[in-house]
Amino acid sequence: MGVKENIERVRDKIAKAAERVGRNPDEIRILGATKKVKVDRIRQAIDAGLRLFGENRVQEGIPKVEALADENVEFHFIGVLQSNKVRKAVKYFSAIHSVSSLKLAKKINAVAEEMRMVYPVFFEINLSGEETKSGFSLREFMENIEELSSLKNIKPVGLMTMPPLQEDPRPYFIKLRELLEEVKGYFGRDFKELSMGMSDDFEIAVEEGATIVRLGRVIFGERE
Ligand SMILES: *Cc1c(COP(=O)(O)O)cnc(C)c1O
Fold first, then answer.
1. Atom of ligand 1 nearest to the CA of 78
2. Whose CA is nearest to atom 2 of ligand 1?
3. What are 198-214's pLDDT values in tens digits?
4. 47: number of Cβ within 10 Å
5. Cα 150 to middle of ligand 1, angstroms
6. How far is the centre of ligand 1, averaged over its atoms, from the C-alpha of 70 (Å)?
7. Which of 15, 80, 145, 219 is deepest in the core (most CB within 10 A)?
8. Is the pLDDT of residue 40 over 90?
9. 223 CA to middle of ligand 1, Å?
């Protein structure tokens, strides 16, 4: 199956999932997760109407961002971010989904201040408590929330999570949606995005309120 057909199928599934719960499908954006995907395949996705993409590694992402600079598309950063890569991430990507600690938020804030910008971020929440997963634990997030909300050069736009692989993802998606509601007051009216759902569970994520689903394999095929 080609990229275009895959996208059409995914769009249809998103529309049906949205319909099941009375949501408007236009509220849901597809982010094409393009790790290990070459530029020509990304172009096929652009031709099929995709406008948002995500990369996991700064070094892998930059050449793609540059190659597609003339297209009307946006690249977000969705991978684990080391502090020495923050400057490049902020320069080449238009948002970061994986802000996983106060330290990283402060670093992004400092870089954005230098660049005289207010930079959109998502806070990644580790809701399962798995040690191997990155993200704020719920406790860390709540303990640092005032300080996070005081950083003037980041604009928090929402939350991101990745449920544990072997479990029913639905409770995690519900939890993230409830957390967004709970903490909205700290971050203002732009804080409304739920970045959740991947190839195996995006329909469930849509049923539970996702506004951005991050899709790799279901659009571009299996990665090597
Ligand atoms: C790879 C990746 C995705 C997409 O995963 P698929 O299972 O291929 O849809 C989504 N989010 C993150 C953070 C990823 O690294």
1. 13
2. 33
3. 999 999 999 999 999 99
4. 11
5. 30
6. 25
7. 219
8. yes
9. 11
On whether the CB atoms of residues 19 and 25 are closer than 8 A, the answer is yes
Ligand 1 pocket residues where CB is under 6 Å: 33, 35, 56, 78-79, 198-199, 214-218
List C-alpha distances in Å: 86 to 36, 112, 123. Answer: 21, 10, 15
- For residue range 125-161, what is the model confidence (pLDDT) as tens digits? 999 988 778 899 999 999 999 999 999 999 999 999 9
Atom 7, ligand 1: residue with shortest CA distance: 199
Q: For 51-97, write each residue's pLDDT tens digit.
A: 999 999 999 999 999 999 999 999 999 999 999 999 999 999 999 99
Number of structural domains (the chain) is 1
CA angle, 71 then 219 then 50, to 5°: 25
Distance in angstroms (rounded) separating the CA atoms of residues 18 and 120: 26
Q: Which domain holds residue 196?
A: 3-220
End-to-end CA distance of the chain: 17
> Amino acid identity of 213?
V
Per-residue pLDDT tens over the stretch 96-132 = 999 999 999 999 999 999 999 999 999 999 999 887 7
Contact (Cβ atoms closer than 8 angstroms) between residue 99 and residue 123 = yes
| 34 Cα–ligand 1 center, Å | 8
User: Which of 55, 98, 160, 198 best tests ligand 1's pocket when mutated (most atoms within 8 Å of CB)?
Assistant: 198
Query: How far does residue 161's CA lie from ligand 1's centre (Å)?
Result: 11
How large is the angle between the packed helices 170-187 and 138-150, nearest 10 degrees?
A: 30
